[in-house]
Amino acid sequence: MAGEDVWVKLPSIIIVEILSYLSLADRLNATSACRRWRNCLFHPILWRSIHFKVKNDSRSRSKHLANMCGRFVRNVTVEFNSQICENVKECLRILDMLADNANLERLALRPSSCQVMQVNWLSTETEETTDLFSDSLEAIIKNARRLKHLSVGCLEDLGDHANVLLPLLAEHQTTTLETLHMATVKEDPDSYGLIEMPVSDLHSLCHLQVLGIDYDYVTTELLDGFSTCNRVKKLERLIIHVHGIEHGHEKIANDTWRRLVVTNPTVEVTLNLIHSADGATGLLDILRPALPLTHLRMFFCQLINVAAINFIARHMATHLRSVQIIDAMLNMTPNSYYAVFDNLSDEDPFVMLAWKCSRLTHFTLIGYEMNDDDVVAIARLRGRQLHTLEVPLCCISSVEPESDPHTVGLEYGRVGNDFNAEISKSVGREWQPISNVQLHLAVKDPHADAEMAYLETLLQDQAF
């Protein structure tokens, strides 16, 4: 074949098969050789999954890709800048095209913010932008033959449309939907409205394995619906976002969690507390010994509930795998949770957590003081299995002798010469604390937008 001009005469099925083995860059280079190869570039089998990036510098590329593949692609992630009108419009246009795609199986939104900028298509049009998003999602739910994954991207206003979207999912996707993310991020966690969540529609999704939901709607009725034995598939992961906690919110009994675990033995629970002082203060009202807590995240909650950390160490040691706590500092002065200790001989709660939780692999504590010996202790206790150990240098305290031999003082950000080496030896890789430059602006400035410090983590929960 190399000696003859027969490459252009290859059957299309062979050309497509060749292209399927190439990376996207090599595929584009190969199809620039001739028109026949170029015509095979957008064969449906080559575009089962697309990650649209709707940003200023890539909007035209996303538009072209949507025009060519929007009606047959199966797995779609739409990443867009939700604070720029033109990008929001293009995202809506992509969703409208997907509404005609009967083969769509997975859809995940990845906005740059939990809020979407209001846009008007016509000067006389006043329909809310989130209503347009909801309309597109409704059409997608109705027309897709086997939708398996749906994520609203933590968008607060879209979460408020759950009372419309859930009945449609129960009607059209009850035998296919496996993953549903309706959890949100609240712009004002201290004041927001609640909707009537149609719990029975959630229960009718008998193949549902992963559910993301706000704590406002976590009730005994909801959990008991997943505890029945007639479900086709078991619940594997429950992701709960905690914001404000309404006075009188039902406290889930331990027996309810026990029933859930008995019927769903592999279920894992992720708790995300987001700007939730209520959640941090009342964490012991949320936690129960039978709750299979796997991941605990606290983002800008203004305090650490030491009693709750100790409770987790005692009752959830066989489940817990990660702890991530991030908070802002005033004038770069780390916050302290030591003040709640009964006496100076009390062990650091996170050291006890690392000792008892044998599956702990990720630990992040940003914005709070931690003694250098305690950081070393955590590294030694979990060793090489500790894949992530994130503590800022400016938050690490060390004891320094004062001029008076009977007193001692604390210094921040100054550790001994062998501190990094000791931790590196324990975790089996080179380790350094987080520098000031690496800290997110919201950690250093309480007035900065904190959303960018955690939104990517929350959206990663919702990826497929």
TrEMBL record:
Domain F-box: 4-50
InterPro entries in UniProt: F-box-like_dom_sf, F-box_dom, LRR_dom_sf
Pfam families attached to this UniProt entry: F-box-like
Example GO BP: positive regulation of protein ubiquitination
Domain of life: Eukaryota
Cited Gene3D superfamilies: 1.20.1280.50, Ribonuclease Inhibitor
UniProt name for this protein: F-box domain-containing protein
Organism for this UniProt entry: Ridgeia piscesae
